Amino acid sequence: MYVRHLQLVDFRSWEKVDLALRPGPTVFVGRNGEGKTNLVEAVGYLATLGSHRVSGDAPLVRHGAAQAVVRAALRREDRELLVEVEVNPGRANRVRVNRSALPRPRELLGLVKSVLFAPEDLALVRGDPAERRRFLDDLLVSRTPRLAGVRSDYDRVLRQRNALLKTARLARGDALATLDVWDTHLVELGGQLLAARLALVADLAPHVARSYAAVAGPGAAAAGLGYASTVPLAGDGAPLVAGEPTARAAELSAALRERIAERRREEVDRGMTLVGPHRDDLVLHLGPAPAKGFASHGESWSLALALKLGCFALLRADGEEPVLVLDDVFATLDAGRRAALADVARSAEQTLITAAVLDDVPEELRDARVEVGAGTAVLVADEEGT
Amino acid sequence: MYEGAVQDLIDELGRLPGVGPKSAQRIAFHLLAAESADVGRLVAALQRVQAEVRFCVTCYNVAEGEQCRICRDPRRSTDVICVVEEPKDVVAIERTREFRGRYHVLGGAISPIEGVGPDDLRVKELMTRLMDGTVTELIIATDPNLEGEATAAYLARLVGPLGLAVSRLASGLPVGGDLEYADEITLGRAFEGRRRIDA
Prior knowledge:
The complex is a heterodimer.
Chain A lengths: L1 E10 L2 E7 L3 E6 L6 H13 L19 E9 L2 E9 L6 E4 L2 E2 L12 E4 L5 H4 L2 H15 L3 H22 L10 H38 L6 E6 L20 H14 L1 H7 L10 E6 L2 E2 L6 H21 L5 E5 L7 H13 L2 E6 L12 E6 L2 E6 L5
Parallel strand pairs in A: 3-13, 3-14, 8-12, 12-13
Antiparallel strand pairs in A: 1-2, 1-4, 4-5, 5-6, 6-7, 9-10, 10-11, 14-15
Helix pairs in contact in A: 3-5, 4-5, 5-6, 5-8
Chain B lengths: L3 H11 L6 H13 L2 H17 E3 L6 E3 L4 H4 L7 E5 L2 H10 L5 E4 L17 H9 L5 E4 L5 H14 L5 E4 L15 H9 L7
Parallel strand pairs in B: 3-4, 3-5, 5-6
Antiparallel strand pairs in B: 1-2
Function (chain B): May play a role in DNA repair. It seems to be involved in an RecBC-independent recombinational process of DNA repair. It may act with RecF and RecO.
Pfam family, one (chain B): RecR_ZnF
Organism (chain B): Geodermatophilus saharensis
């Protein structure tokens, strides 16, 4: 798919901008602070209903405005798809697809597919497990929209259960009488989430390995993905092998239930849920060693890039071309990795690239440019052979 | 901001559920422009609610007097109790005219985040009603969300030893709706709860 037209109203620094776009690579070029990233961030927002830079919606609305609107016309297998999102901080957002309102914003998830790579993604390798869980869950929802419901229900049950555990010691009577009820919900939803994550990691692993080999060049160690769980799994954390069946939801629910029973006393003492997918981690391997703590800075960068390119390849293998967004990354890459990334960028149906300096972007990607500055953004294309 | 009394009225109205600042302002100015007799009736209605409406001593539905209209009605069956979260759920079920038993209003659902546990609901009162053996069936009609489901599961476990018939309202497709518009969770539930058609 590709974005044919993008319109923003009061989104980030943009009061209003209308921008026509084309398939293929396009470079957004302009000085720092002119709003290049804000334009491509809006495309990412349509895919995940979240931003890669901030966690809440409030910073997305231009200072002084009450709401922001992101409106995009996309082409998806020769069909027009018009998506409009009204961002209302503190209230429910509203989403329309082809001019009809969706009952819930999260029903948009999975419709617009995009993969965004930005300097912030280094945190996928070096940051907390929460970053990697969010990475997995976002990809999960993009491939299987039904899981958005499972994910949000799991979070809610977790909050309820933690609230109960926290008050359990102080409360009068047998406050834990209702704990069993929440346990039932937790293991049911947790089992589904775990099963889906394990299957995803197994599907994603070969794509990440291939992308890493291409990015890091010949002679580099092989990249692998594993899943470390608070629920005992066979081969805990070791790299998963594609094609091997992963555990099913029902088995995982049973395992989760057992583990919760074992740690009940500890959970009551600490006032929180200690087992479940919310405490798990995606383990990145380079050769025999886990990447975290062992990978060099360059290796970490390559691995972060390979994770995102792996996503891109996986979604493409599922049968839908995602929009590739590369936010301010070429300047930080060396020649080899730049060339590897340029290969993928050229092959994508649409790639949106931001750069402060045009020379940082490989020459073959520069034919179409959006010049960003003084509150405007205009598409300029070198016409060739037409 | 408006002058004292008007702003006070807007603030009070804005505190009501479902009324935002804009609606509060609209209602306030509507009341200012209304006939004084109309406003008088509203004031009287509010005061009467305050003074006269109580909760039924048996089922905790809203009532004028000791017992609510349903508990007083001798034609209604005493062997089935339908458990709901709020009095407005009673009204919703009454509109169906399908149910001829009695109700029990819990006053909410279990939600630790809001500090609501079984002791804050009328669960003990329900158990007392079930003890004397006249009730043979319990229908749990809490909301089909996480908190409502948790409350239903808790109650089912609690009354299990009494040997009553306990059921939960079905969830599934809306009548008159289209299959294609149902979300996956509703459709999945509808599949789970499918019924055999007798030929």
